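Re: folding output
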Amino acid sequence: MILQSWRVGSLRSLWLGAFIGFLVTVVLGWVLPIIGHLIGGLVAGLIAGGGMGRGALAGFLAGIFGGIVVTIVAVIGGLAVGGIMGGVFGGLVGGVVGLLIGIVVFLLSLFGAIVAAIGGLVGGAIAK
């Protein structure tokens, strides 16, 4: 009965696939930067099932989650550096630098998300 709620093709399986694909990407991304994203997307697509489009969406979500987390860490890091510099000027410079670094990191993470989407496309095609 519990397993029926996680059946392939449901919205829950899409988010579950995206989350597990994200975890695989985090684990393998440090050792194998591009291949890790591809394998994470493949796993996300296999779990999400439902065809190539659904697999590609799960892979893209798995890839973009990491980019969002790294972007938040970069912005907070820039703000922390600005706080260490002290004063209003330090906070302003830290905020602007953190925001710029966050934007650059997010744009670079879109590449990883596209690679993960390609892996998800293949995984969704296999699962169908």
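--- second protein (sequence, then structure) ---
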Amino acid sequence: MEIIRNLFNEHGYSLLVHPEDDKSFYCCLYSIIQGDKHPVNAQNAYQMQKDIFEYEKKNSLYFHLFKPQCFDCNGNHSAADCLKCDFGRMSAEKRPPSPRECYAAADFLRRRICVVRYDPTVKGDLKSLRGYIFAPIDKSGIMEPVCILMFEKQPGSLQFANIYCSDNLTTDLDLSMLPAVIKNKEHIHCFGLRFANEFTLLFDNSVPNCRKTDVKDLYRFLSLKLYGKEEYHERIINTICNFELEDDNLELFVKFADRGINEKNSLSHKRKILCYHVEKIRNRLEEVPGDGEFYALSSVYNVDIIVDKTGRGQWQKFMAVVCTYASSFDSLIILQNQGQKGKVCYGPYVTQPDSCFCCQNIPEIQGHIAKIENNIHMSVCKYHL
């Protein structure tokens, strides 16, 4: 680390290196909050880690979407329990933080965090290093980013250090001052491959491109775009199905399962109807997702979805009906029915090949009201009564 420190000093930067290797990331966060340039002790680092984990569990619906670090999860578990188990094993095995913790830290601090990965092959050319910005979901009140160096001491062991300008008393750095090429500079509020929860994918790949694909199954396509692989399709299905079945969402999603449901039906009858519908979705007895699934997907993954079910340019927009976040991702999902002979097969609507989803031309939505009522949950319920 001393060699790296000297290298940064030669280029006008200073590193604040912390002694607690396995908790050095949390030392960096504590140092940012306190505005202190002194190494952080173990007790403060432990408390910072605990605060971040608690923040993730408090917002488990979102952070459960990130692939766990220590075990496989098909999404058919309690979000809070899944996170708790992952955190317990990470702590016991002294695992380094994952991108999930970086995003949680950005939300917790309400700051953009630029993580710069040190690569020994750059041989002194800091501008060849790669950086990635972890931004809060809330886009308001954006401040200049703080910068943290990530260095792999050995396989599976990461050390972190604060980066700041030698002649600047704060850890704030203007984007133009960052000692790295920022991989997602124009796409910090796109979903990218964040949910795959792997640093390598973020640093070594560009933002996922929107391109036509041979993948015919919608959930496999979504898995490919959200996680980088098709194999997490079952996780996506279980996550949205569990979301529909939550007690607070029953009254809303049962109306998508059965249009004949009204206020005269008992709660137990409604739950029976919705459970039957959800099981058909899980077991792929319903090959085509309905409006409820599109609304659930939008609500859970915080992404706007535009769909042409006919293949003739009759577009519908699905937004979060259970609002959890202040705003959705800049990148959205646009799907068009590309099936033939009456068969429904959704594929990506691509107008700008090999560009991010946020760069695609948004289709004109007939009858779409630009200003959505704040209480969209009530609006949808009233519409389907």
